[in-house]
Amino acid sequence: MTGMTAQMIFLAFFGAAAVWFGIVVFRTKSMVRSALALLFSQTAVGLMFLVMQAEFLGVLQIMMMATEMSVMAIFMVMFMMDPGGMGAMDMTHQKRLSLWAGGIGLVAALAVIWLAAWGPAVPNIPGAAQQAADLGRELLGRSMFIFQSAGLTILTAMVAATMVAIAPRKERKE
Amino acid sequence: MTIIWILLAFLVGAYLIAVLESWAVHGRLQPARPAFSALALLGRESLLARTPDRLFFEAGPVLLLVAGLLAVAVIPLAPGLIVTDLATGALFLNAALAYVLVALIMAGWGPNGAYGMIGGWRFLGQFVAYAMLIVMPITAVAMRAESLSTVDIVTSQAALWNIAYQPVGFALFVVAAMGLAWLPPLDLPTAPGDLAGGIEAEYTGVRLAVLRLARMTVILALAGATVTFYLGGWLGPWLPAPVWSGLKILLVAGLMVSAGRLVPRVREARYLALSWKLGIPLALTNIFLVGVIALVVPI
User: Is the confidence metric ipTM above 0.90 for this complex?
Assistant: First the structure.
């Protein structure tokens, strides 16, 4: 029982940390701080996975977010006319719309949490190695099509974004 | 107790690598040199840049040290001599080393100085080049071991070390590791001579000492990873297991800090082009070949 309680405390702590860093993303005036706050928010989510004994998912989340958020930072700095991210800029825009969207999202999330039938907690969690094996079988079995199409969609979006960002050949010659 | 012994072993290792690096740089073997430079750094005033981002400035070197230590935690020195044998060890090593990048961006951006900032962003550019070439060779190693545990990866090499089983993966991994530890010729983030130290430019005194110690830990972790993944870890005849690990790690680290000094510094764009146009196709071929061999020949 004490193990369970400790687990709950850590889960709540990292959850609160994730929310706090999420707030910092919009409170700061610096692009780099904003990007790194988002990174630490996602790292806290990864730590929540670890607390919930999902080792592979936790480590994967912690690894992917470090790289993804940093790459996002470099793209922000490249495209936002803010050399090095040194200039101060407001991280919020379309405030009324964002408030409504955020509020509705919160209500929806709370409704799902309260109304869904979650069922009992799994008593016997498989070991970390078994979890990784199970995940691999799931990814290459039932869920393969979903993951492959998601990957292809992201790749297409990346190519399209780069195409939009690069100046046309005519403009570059001048 | 084991943890203390391992940390002590790695501390000695970090010192020896510092000796090797100063040998490679200055051409003279001076075993006391790192101790004297450390004392000099600790005795010097630790200056604070004007209007710094104080949080990032202080956190950068410490985060780098933490990342290095976490990476070291999954490197086995002998059977049972490991801080923690995670079922996802190889992935964990990667996750820990991903924060080297975060630490360097923080350290580069924190002091609010041009050289540091350029150094930090340069490392981010360099990351885009080396990142895939760290992960993809490890994938092939894990495929052969059928496990992500670093201990299982070492025992899977009992019959044949991975350096012979997948030499292409070994070469790619070592070069990418040198990029990750910003060792010459891939030392663009510090670039002595054109960036005045880059990310190290604004650090002095005890903060610089932490930054340098952290870098040695990262180099040690990468040498340890190379030995674990490709050189059979603690495996070897006659000598006891920890001695083999130590010797191999020092040899790899020595080669990593010295060999690159014989070639000129590689430009960012060239490194990116080589990594993506040559490195990634080679890494994919390596994964394919290892898959075929693992299915056909049971070694």
Answer: no
